[in-house]
Amino acid sequence: MSEQRHVEVVVVGAGFAGMYLIYRMRRAGRSVQGFETAGDVGGTWYWNRYPGARCDVESMEYSYDFDEDLQQEWTWTEKYSTQPEILRYAQHVADRFELRPHIRFNTRVEAAYYDEGTGRWLVRTDDGDELTCQFFVMATGCLSSANLPDIEGRDSFGGVLAHTGRWPHDGVDVTGKRVGIIGTGSSGIQAIPVLAAQAGHLTVFQRTAQFTLPARNGPLDPAEQDRIKETYAELRAANRKMPGAFGSRYARRKGNALDATPERLRAEFDFLWEQGGPLFLASFRDLMLDPEANRLAADFVREKIAEIVDDPETAARLTPHGLIGCKRLVIDTDYYETYNRPNVMLVDVGSRGDPIQRITPTGVLVGPDGTEGEGGEHHELDVLIFATGFDAMTGSLLRVDIRGRGGRALADKWANGPVTYLGLNVVGFPNLFTVTGPGSPSVLANMIVATEQHVDWISECIEHLDANGLTTIEATPEAEAEWVAHVNAIADRTIFPTCNSWYVGANIPGKPRVFMPLPGFPNYVKRCEEVVAGGYEGFVLS
Ligand code: NA7
Prior knowledge:
By secondary structure, this protein is of the alpha/beta class. Helix content is about 30%, strand content about 15%. The protein is built from 16 helices and 20 strands.
């Protein structure tokens, strides 16, 4: 029998987190093995190939800054990049830094068990392979475990059924077809205008109306791009001081909305609406903190919807109740305008309409509860698209059977919701690192910046252990408990925990309701730096 293979580091996932981690480990001369379920690098940008998919952070900011030549040489074509362009960028990075030889593609990590005797992790893949490692890093992304709701009759549908987050690589031909789409989050809102322009007829099944703002996307002026590149390091540094690690070029803090005169408020909101993009709520300090202030912004957008959408009933159905930005704010191109097209129909399957009763072989049946189809309306479809999101943040971590000390499963430890220290490590799971894990800024920050910060921290931590003849790092129960309380306290100061969003796990039936990301990137980074300066405070190194 051959001896079991051992590497210093196993990395699960070859998206932007996994790729950079592999780069850092190789640069430090460490043995590393990456695993990736997909056929190539790119992570979320490998899977989300639906029409209209693009990033909601500007191209010049949603990119790596660890290599000056890389950031100088790459050219983006649009203000907000499309999925194909971001995927090409990821592939370029993989080529340039020769990352692929260290990644096994089309391979899913099924289990990872910590062996207290050897202090190593035993990792098993779906092709039956096993290897051991000293450090086990989950770089699996926050939005990678697709949520395909178990709606009755789903599998009986006779047409083409696709999920936006698992879009078929050879595409879905919707030309002239009767298309239905369930879900109006970011994916649905990006896809709907593009689908409407191609389909014969588009039916949108909306459960909750969603706030979205115009992106004002367009070609990226090469001269502007060159100008940004001249002082790229300064832009990156300024972005790291922003709450979400992006958008410093547009920063305009204006005091509190509740203190502003109606005229000033209006002028500011008008300006931001025309400027476009996701920074609408970064204007006044109190918009994400005080529901009263938030309502002023929400009302402004509600008015805009009424202005844009011709049919007042459709406009009313599209108008969200409640606060803006509590669910992740979406930016769009021509979303509300799309409902003025004659071939688009909005069906409310939420509290203001009748629910989806079931999916049939030929379409979707919508009707009052308990009527078993009588009085319901059947929508005949050739193509049915699920834009129903993800089991966010914990989904892909818990899909792997991770067991720490005493054989305890991570799923068991997190039965009441995720607990971590810094979103980086979990008590009972020594040498396990989670990149952009729950309890870190993650999805509330520019993901590439958050990813680089975590990977840098992990890489430097491993260097530190090595340099000091240490092999193991694990958070202390006190530090973990304090961190969880800290994250909750910060979140409770905001409006975030007040609504049914995927940030709190509300989109997945039975998922514990816990606010998972941490608002405020700069304070978080400061804390991570203090932890290191304090000799890895809150961790036991042995
Ligand atoms: P989201 O934002 O979770 O949106 C999913 C949408 O699907 C949302 O409108 C949901 O309505 C709807 N949904 C989910 N399940 C159902 C069922 N069973 N029936 C009807 N409608 C349903 O996912 P996205 O992919 O759009 O975006 C995720 C993130 O990816 C996004 O924020 C960006 O960061 C990138 P609900 O609101 O729950 O009532």
